[in-house]
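Intended use. Records such as the Pyridoxamine 5'-phosphate oxidase N-terminal domain-containing protein entry shown here are meant for training and evaluating sequence-to-structure methods. They are not intended to support clinical decisions.
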Amino acid sequence: MGKIFDKIPPFVASWIQKQHIFFVATAALSETGHVNLSPKGLAKTFHIKDEKTVWYEDMTGSGVETIAHLRENGRMTIMFCAFEGPPQIVRLSGYGKVFEYDTPEYNELLPLNKRQPGSRSVILLQIHRVETSCGFSIPFYTFKAERMRLHQYLARAEREDLKTATCKLDSEEGATFDSQISEKGVRHYWAVLNKTSIDGLPGIQGAHKSKTLFDRDIANKEWKQEMPLVDMQQSKAAAVSAITSWVDPKVLVWFLLGVLTTSLWSNLTGIVVPKMKACTPSLVFYLQGHTTTMGKTFNEIPPFVASWIQNQHMFWVATAPLSETGHVNLSPKGFAGTFHIVDEKTVWYEDMTGSGIETIAHLRENGRMTIMFCAFEGPPQIVRLFGYGKTCKIYPPPDMILNVITGQVYEFDTPEYNELIPLDKRQPGSRSVIMLHIHRVGTSCGYSIPFYTFNTDRMRLHQFFAGKELADIEAEASATDNGAKQKDDTGKQHPVSDKGLKTYWLVRNKESTDGLPGIQTAYKSNTVFDRSIASKEWKQEKPPTDVLQAKATPDIAKWVDSKVLVGFVVGVGVTGLLSNLTSVVEKLKAW
């Protein structure tokens, strides 16, 4: 399921260059410091310099965690995973350097006319470990287009900075900004929001002081949100089809019914249909882009975030050891029904067997974990759930010390695991329950995340581990005393079957990359796996389009569907509009 290299092999390099998104994880060294996890989109921002060195153009965002963590300890992991084609995960681990905007290194790697709007720094990674793993649980997605929202937002901010610029043609320093910083500009954003990390570590140090002018062509470019040609053609065809299909007697009847209902209601109650109000100045101000919020923070999961999370098809998890030389881990998680929200402060997920055991090992050592969701479809959004995974000290004001148990690892066949996941409800390869008690929820814009369309869950991991569970079941059936004879204390004897899942846990999941303890009891369990789950044929199926559409818009009755309801609403709206116009005409006549 996994291979390790000390440099990027050619086949990995070529595969990386075809991906549309990557993910970055870093962590502070403090036991109470946050682990950060960030998605990175936008074409042509990631570069392979050589087999041991990569770098990417870091865009302005509401946080500065990556830069702050790299300044403190340098540890970083960059991950790619396949959403299309054969399954694959690649992690690049090493030590990173930060080159801020307008430093010599930044300027050399990114000439002025090659920068993205809002370009903040260059992050360069010196690689010492390349790891590939299966990616058997990553859902199938179809890439649609780059999202241009971040470009639009930051190009506008750069234009605000350019308004305060003065061009000193006689100066050897070239074009420079004056001493005043626009409050709506990028430099002000860096100075105010990017100075320190969540934990108070230093972030941006010099970029906001730079006097180098942004590129006017880039800032003034119209960054349109474009869809691929095929999607545009499909969209136009769908629009024509929709218009023609909506012109039928049902719509007309319900339109008239809406008109009559509104008139009757007005006559019976004497309530006049309210007039439409103009946009408030604050709304207009927001629409002009001057008050866009890129990030918000909560101490628990708000209801609107909880409902949004439940609609996502996958999530990502990041953990890190405390050692300055320890590896930061970043893992994607798929499969419907494996993530659960207990309440606004507690979540848990069913942890599936993999070639690594980093998450469990890191939680046993220090408990820090971040779970992230990001929107591939619909409005942009990123949500991060921060928590600790063992008893740890936190220091809320005023100088209070609290010992808080905020998360746990419950291995296979522990009482807590069995209570949360009954035998017949488990996924094949289910290894543990990871529970997180949350102390911070962060939302951010997600303006740079590409558009993907979800297709279906990938069943390859289920198929792989169902076979291993079945091997354990068959071995147990042929030698019922096998579990009783195993040496639990030493673990020297293979539990149940050499080809089974428990042997996999013993051999592959005993310790992390850095030697921290991982699985401790699951491989010793005498509990037999569920034969009905292990024997199930886990087919790779793609849901039919008509089934999905039927679920999205159920046919309540032949005459009560979305079309007639809209016809009714339009009838109500037209009546209200006519009422308003009549009132205006009467006032004009009186005047």
